[in-house]
Amino acid sequence: MSRKKPHHTKQFKLDAINYRKAHPDLTQVECAKNLGIGVSTLARWEAQIMMAIFLLSVPAVTIQKNKEKLPVSNVSCEIHRMHL
Description:
Blueprint lengths: L9 H13 L5 H8 L3 H19 L4 E4 L2 E4 L3 H7 L3
Antiparallel strand pairs: 1-2
Helix pairs in contact: 2-3
């Protein structure tokens, strides 16, 4: 019988990342243990949010379609696309 993966809400993921930032005295292992998640899970969420922030700091990329420039990304779109 296989285990079903827990589904964490986007809010839980963001709260976990904020918890880690709010407790610099704790290691990543300790934070993950306190939150009841795996260390690799917390690390992945942190990497995903850092990538989203990086992508948002880059000037908006535009594409040419029917002679109209369309912006490609915004905050909620990037976070949703990264399954965070």
